[in-house]
Amino acid sequence: MMARTLLAASTLSLPHVNYTAIMPELIALGGSLLLLAVAAVTPRRLPTTVYAAMTSGIGIASLVASLVLYHDVRQGGAFVAIAHSIDVDGFSVLVMTLASCVLILTPMLAAGFFEREGLGGCEYYALACISVGGAMLMGAANDLVLIFLALEVLSIPLYVMAGLDYRREGSGEAALKYFLLGAFSSAIFVYGIALVYGATGSTNLGEIAAFLAHNVLVANGVLYGGMALLIVGFGFKVAAVPFHMWTPDVYQGSPTPAVGFMASIAKVGGFAAFLRVFISTLPTLSQTWKPVLWVIVIITVLLGAIAALVQRDVKRMLAYSSINHAGFILLGLQAATAKGATGSLYYLFAYSLLILGSFGVIAVVGGRGDTGHSIERYRGLARRSPLLAGAFALLLLAQAGAPFTTGFFAKLYVVEAAVAAHSYALAAVAMVSAAIAAFFYLRVVFVMFADTRLAEAPAGDAALVQAAGAPAVSAVGASGSGVFEPAVAGGGGVLLAEAPVRLEEETATPEASATGEEIRDGAVSAWTWSGLILTVGATVVFGIWPQPLVDFAQHAHLLF
Amino acid sequence: MLAVATLPDAITFAIAAVIAVVGALGVVLSRNPVHAALMLVMTLFGVAVLFVEENAQFLAAVQVIVYTGAIVVLFLFVIMLIGVDRQERVFADGFNARRALTFFLGLAVLAEVLLLAHERWVTGAHSVTGKLHGAAANVSDLGHAIFTTYLLPFEVTSALLVVAVIGAVVLARRHTAGDEPTERPVLAAGEPGSGAGEDANSPALEGAPGGSGVDR
Asked: Would you kindly state where each structural domain of chain A is located, as residue ranges?
């Protein structure tokens, strides 16, 4: 310690700032300022596609910076930078790359939506840039204080995005709900940091790991308490059950492209820090936290899959399905091995692209006003717009883990890691939940494709069907939602309930015309198509030829 | 606890303590919310003086700048916006079960704190901050930490401020009628598109009968 004199205060030696180490973050955060500046100096409001193009450009720039960093790490090895607050290792570089990909795809899948809704302006894109910067920092942070700040930089833009659609009450409600619960979980997280600091004397992850490796705490109540609170804080961000309560409501209420973005980036950032803190910093305590995560994984995968079965709102269904995915990613974390971390990262990669693309399709099908998210709206979608339905079917099948898609390998790797760590029961439960989940993914695919024959039937046939169906329809009531009551009763009854619903569609006005528009392939904007082509393409290409992505993930070693 | 070295210290402590306690009582007992907020300012100032006496100059400054300068002013803004005239009769409905529960929880926390202060049940790293080195030392220590160890976290807070500005502008902006490009589709009650919920607390109630509708 230096002598505390005025002289000493004047000879402050600043740490060396390695700008390449944080270049992707700087590009993303600086990009948001660029967007705001452009919006401020242009006299008239620019079309939303201009901002979208700029944002994709920012994403490409940060992707290039990430790959340069990847090259550096491959050549020169991992290193810490800026007063030990940043880790530059294979893991953080992979997280940066993934976050950059999300930043490239997000504006593509959002531009069409904002153009249609007339919710122009650069705010959405500027917020997306900042949020992505926060996610990158979460992956690279080597200090609990920085992780907390990055968590806030990641989350606060998401709260604002949730409330972006001022015309719908649901959007404001989602924003408020997300904000209040998020602020609450952040407070819990900070308390966890304080307790860990109290027990180990540092907030630096490397120093914490070193302290715990060299000291045995006789009474470690504070450390355990801090660890538990950290699990709660991270669990909220990644929507693991019992901390998942916000997910369905927020996903249902928020503007659809924002949902795709928050579903991907919040999980990327949350899991990046979750994996680093628990696998590389607290491995000495793994015998304590593994059983806790064991329970969390089981209830997360099961509740996510089972609750999704009974949903009739597609956004809500995907919310529960993302909870199920969070359970799978936690499965890799629970293994507490390098293999598990690799599996989790691969899963994150696959999941982020899938969920972005899925919500891109939902944003199109939702129609003007962003309200048509009932599963009924997807009936016969394959006939009206075969390409859109095909893309959605592929994305859903990949989420279900169908072979020849990234989703299959993602599930394979985490389950493999769990088996290698001797968590056989856990792997079995996860596979059962995947089977349950496949059921509701396939239901949407079935609804989109299987009813084409009936809908194309000539008028005479339709009349026959109508006559046959009339008693059934009157029995369950004329209103659309009345028909769904039996479906809600249980998962097993869902398919049975399809029959009266199908007849109902023939008698009542089809929903597409009720809202005054039809979804046609030709009407979908080129931006959406390019985003969908990229997500679906990556899903299929890396599903058939997974080696490059696997290599990439396997180089994602944690520094400590 | 009261290991006061000199007489001036003792006198300062006594005055500041009285100010803090009287202020705290005032917050709880005053009927007028504005008075309560001003009493809170008094408490915070008293506590700030106590911090200075404990050589915690930074905490004292933060106490005055952040709490009295920002938070209490925010309270006052909210009170002004809601209306000063409304008076809440806090003790109107007597001593019910919820109050009793709160009281016992408070007692439990107090007992817990006393127990912890008395019993050493945790071990961990020893304090790494070192001793205080007379006046203003901890302020310069903190400055050192911010510009060396925590340089990057300190800079990252600037991103938080940008987000706060954007968020506030986006959410608080008033939408004029001409600004709205599309008519909100009016959903029939129970139409599938309204997402009539499986969950009672689903947010998509905008189409439900009796829903108050958006602000237009």
From this structure: 23-450+513-554
CA distance A137 to A130: 11
Residue with tokens 């938080």: B160
- The neighbour count for residue A514, using CB atoms within 10 Å, is 18
- Residue A160 to residue B196, Cβ atoms within 8 A: no
What mean pLDDT comes out for the span B17-27? 94
What residues pair up with A143 in beta bridges, in sequence order? Answer: A204
What is the rounded average pLDDT for all residues in chain A?
84
Which residues share a beta bridge with A81?
A: A86
Distance of alpha carbon A197 from alpha carbon A370, whole angstroms: 46
Choosing among A166, A186, A476, which should be mutated to test the B contact, i.e. which has the most B CBs within 10 A? Answer: A166
CA-to-CA distance for B195 and B211, rounded, in angstroms? 14
Q: Which residues of A touch B190 (CB under 8 A)?
A: 479-482
Band of residue B90 on the pLDDT scale cut at 50, 70, 90: low
Q: Is the dihedral of CA A321, A325, A328, A333 positive or negative?
A: negative
Residue in chain A lying closest to B216 (CA) = A167
Q: Do B148 and A14 touch (CB under 8 A)?
A: yes
Q: What number of C-beta contacts closer than 8 Å exist between A and B?
A: 218
Give the pLDDT confidence of A502-538 residue by residue, as tens digits. Answer: 433 433 334 444 444 567 777 788 888 888 999 998 8
- Give the 3-state DSSP-derived string for A195-256, with helices as H, strands as E and coil as C: HHHHHHCCCEHHHHHHHHHHCCCCCEHHHHHHHHHHHHHHHHHHCCCCCCCHHHHHHHHCCH
ipTM of the complex: 0.80
CA distance A153 to A150: 5
Closest CA to A166 of B197, B215, B178, B189: B215
Residue A88, SS3?
A: strand
Buried residues in A387-411 as b, exposed as e (16+ CB within 10 A): ebbbbbbbbbbbbbbbeebbbbbbb
The H or E element containing residue A80 is: strand A79-81
pLDDT higher than threshold 70 for residue B191: no
Contact between B167 and A160 using a beta-carbon 8 Å cutoff: yes
The single-letter code of the amino acid at A271 is F
**What is the distance between the alpha carbons of residues A285 and A340, in angstroms, rounded to a whole number?**
17
Question: Inter-chain contact A377–B192, Cβ cutoff 8 Å?
Answer: yes
The CA–CA distances, whole Å, from A314 to A435, A502, B42 equal 19, 18, 54
Mutate to test the interface with B, among A48, A127, A129, A160 (most CBs of B within 10 A): A160
Phi (first) and psi of residue A205, to 5 degrees: -60, -40
Contacts of A198 in chain B (CB under 8 A): 122, 124
Q: What DSSP string describes A492-560?
A: GGTTTTHHHHHHHHHHSPPHHHHTT----GGGS-HHHHHHHHHHHHHHHHHHHS-HHHHHHHHT-----
B19 to chain A, closest Cα gap in Å: 30
In one-letter notation, the amino acid at residue A148 is F
Please report the pLDDT score of residue A184 as a whole number.
93
Rounded Cα distance between B123 and A287, Å, is 19
- Model confidence pLDDT, tens digit, residues A66-101: 999 999 888 888 888 888 889 888 899 999 999 999
Q: Averaging pLDDT over each range in A159-168, A195-204, A268-277, which range is the top one? A: A268-277
> Rounded to the nearest 5°, which phi and psi values hold at A154?
-70, -40
The answer to whether A93 and A141 have CB atoms below 8 angstroms apart is no
Residue B191 phi/psi, 5° resolution? -65, 140
Query: Which residues does A510 contact at the CB level (< 8 Å), separation at least 6?
Result: none
Give the tokens for residue B34. 């504005």
